[in-house]
């Protein structure tokens, strides 16, 4: 029997953009709510953000079925952790778990581009950024997804994060206030929406701080 | 697939290693259904689909029911490979049977069934042997309306209106313009018929024999098959080459 060529792909790109910014005592995580395939919009109201633990929020874009499966795996693993340790997972712990979970499928990856945001054990904002197979690092801010190429340079310019190569290490979290950071995120998405066809419809913003978690929405262009 | 006597009987090892394993995997669909469209309306969900089963470019079967009830609270509509849809119905039958065997007064609602289907579709995709369908799952439970969709690679979402296949290109734009959350049953049917008519004109796999199904808190009905009126007597269709003699 001659070698068959696959005539279907197990992957699709459902688009979207995610951003996270770490502050001194808060963390902002945001993503648009558009879900697309090819040149079609499937729905304008799909959340890419999930709260995995008290102080860990993940935003993911890419192939939606893989994103959802990944979210479910992490949710389940967190539940087991809570049963075994009688406490919530810290954000850095969740960060490692996410990395390991992604690498576990190194040879049939989750097509999911993630940013994990939250508060570390000292209450400072933390952001972790990933590729599809689990390579990650802690940063002061990051964006992933279809609009990341438009947003990342803008964030680099506005947040002027010190080089991670400096010794002694300089703090990566932004000195901006919470409301300034939220405004910056809104500006990022308004701009990305103009030029990226996969970003738009609505922006969902989650803010984590000592008081808890707050959710905010902003309309984006629907074209 | 023609398996003749010259190929050796597959042993267990060779089944896993050789291309005989590929005989077991879906590579292409054979008998397929085209678009399904669905909307939420005031009292529940409306789903429409034609009754065609195409065999490539042949409109082979014209009495295929592509909308079926699932338990008391849901309806499923399917496009894509009909045999895979039949297998999904068998899975759902087993699911609902096990659910009712608990005999605990609880029954699976549309959200739960949709979640189950999503996991089934995704898991088959993971094994590179997909169920070649795009499914719509709609229903009402305890007054809560639910409408979701899932396709062969596991991509899923819920919305106020959903469609599969060509319906995404032709029907969704109409629904985006004209849908509102207070549609009456008559208005909903009219809106779906408008979409089905466009699909009938523009989708070559569409057949003019459709069913519209409704589900509310009270229960479900699937209409008897009927046809849409179409209009072909346009002046431009008469003497079509009059402006360019010799053309077709």
Automatic annotation (TrEMBL), chain A:
KW Translocase (keyword) present: no
Residues spanning the membrane: none
Pfam short name (any one): Proteasome
InterPro entries according to UniProt: Ntn_hydrolases_N, Proteasome_bsu_CS, Proteasome_sua/b, Proteasome_suB-type
UniProt KW keywords: Cytoplasm, Nucleus, Proteasome
Keyword Mitochondrion: no
Signal peptide: none
GO biological process: proteolysis involved in protein catabolic process
UniProt subcellular location: Cytoplasm; Nucleus
Top-level taxon of origin: Eukaryota
Annotated Gene Ontology cellular component terms: cytoplasm; nucleus; proteasome core complex
Assembly information from the UniProt record: Component of the proteasome complex.
Similarity section: Belongs to the peptidase T1B family.
PANTHER family: METALLOPROTEASE TLDD, PROTEASOME SUBUNIT BETA TYPE-1
Record's function text: Component of the proteasome, a multicatalytic proteinase complex which is characterized by its ability to cleave peptides with Arg, Phe, Tyr, Leu, and Glu adjacent to the leaving group at neutral or slightly basic pH. The proteasome has an ATP-dependent proteolytic activity.
Protein name, as recorded: Proteasome subunit beta
Source organism phylogeny: Eukaryota, Viridiplantae, Streptophyta, Embryophyta, Tracheophyta
TrEMBL record, chain B:
GO terms, biological process: proteolysis involved in protein catabolic process
InterPro entries: Ntn_hydrolases_N, Proteasome_alpha, Proteasome_beta4, Proteasome_bsu_CS, Proteasome_sua/b, Proteasome_suB-type
PROSITE patterns in the cross-refs: PROTEASOME_BETA_1, PROTEASOME_BETA_2
Record flagged with keyword Cell wall biogenesis/degradation: no
Keywords recorded for this protein, A-Z: Cytoplasm, Nucleus, Proteasome
Cellular compartments per GO CC: cytoplasm; nucleus; proteasome core complex, beta-subunit complex
Coiled coil residues, start to end: none
Function summary: Non-catalytic component of the proteasome.
Similarity comment text for this entry: Belongs to the peptidase T1B family.
Protein name per its UniProtKB record: Proteasome subunit beta
UniProt organism field: Coffea arabica (Arabian coffee)
Gene: LOC113703284
């Amino acid at each position: 029997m001659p070698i068959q060529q696959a005539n279907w792909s197990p992957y699709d790109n459902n688009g979207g953009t995610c951003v996270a910014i770490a502050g001194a005592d808060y963390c902002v995580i945001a993503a648009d709510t558009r879900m697309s395939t090819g040149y079609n919009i499937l729905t304008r109201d799909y959340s890419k953000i999930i709260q995995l633990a008290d102080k860990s929020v993940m935003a993911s874009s890419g192939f939606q079925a893989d994103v959802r499966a990944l979210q479910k795996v992490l949710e389940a693993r967190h539940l087991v952790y809570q049963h075994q340790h009688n406490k919530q997972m810290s954000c850095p712990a969740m960060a490692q778990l996410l990395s390991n979970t992604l690498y576990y499928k190194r040879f049939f990856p989750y097509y999911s581009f993630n940013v994990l945001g939250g508060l570390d054990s000292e209450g400072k904002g933390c952001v972790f950024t990933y590729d599809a197979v689990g390579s990650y690092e802690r940063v002061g801010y990051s964006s992933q997804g279809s609009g990341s190429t438009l947003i990342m340079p803008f964030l680099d310019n506005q947040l002027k994060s010190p080089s991670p190569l400096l010794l002694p290490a300089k703090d990566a979290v932004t000195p901006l206030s919470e409301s300034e950071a939220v405004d910056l995120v809104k500006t990022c998405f308004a701009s990305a929406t103009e030029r990226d066809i996969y970003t738009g419809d609505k922006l969902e913003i989650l803010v984590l701080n000592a008081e808890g978690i707050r959710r905010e929405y902003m309309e984006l262009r629907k074209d | 697939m023609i398996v003749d006597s010259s190929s050796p009987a597959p042993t267990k090892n060779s089944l896993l290693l050789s291309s005989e394993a590929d005989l077991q995997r879906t590579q292409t669909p054979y008998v397929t259904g085209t678009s399904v469209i669905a909307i939420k309306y005031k009292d529940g969900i409306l789903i429409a689909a034609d009754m065609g089963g195409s065999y490539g470019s042949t409109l082979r079967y014209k009495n295929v029911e592509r909308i079926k009830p699932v338990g008391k609270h849901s309806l499923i509509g399917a496009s894509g490979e009909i045999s895979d849809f039949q297998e999904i119905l068998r899975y759902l039958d087993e699911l609902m049977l096990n659910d009712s065997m608990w005999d605990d007064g609880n029954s699976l609602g549309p959200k739960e069934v949709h979640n189950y289907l999503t996991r089934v579709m995704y898991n088959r995709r993971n094994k590179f042997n997909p169920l070649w369908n795009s499914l719509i799952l709609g229903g009402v439970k305890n007054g809560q309306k639910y409408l979701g969709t899932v396709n062969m690679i596991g991509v899923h979402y819920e919305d106020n209106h959903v469609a599969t296949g060509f319906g995404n290109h032709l029907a969704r734009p109409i629904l985006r313009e004209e849908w509102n959350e207070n549609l009456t049953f008559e208005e909903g049917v009219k809106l779906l018929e408008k979409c089905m008519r466009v699909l009938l004109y523009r989708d070559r796999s569409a057949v003019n024999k459709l069913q519209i199904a409704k589900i509310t808190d009270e229960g479900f009905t699937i209409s008897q098959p009927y046809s849409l009126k179409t209009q072909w007597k346009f002046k431009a269709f008469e003497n079509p080459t009059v402006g360019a003699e010799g053309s077709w």
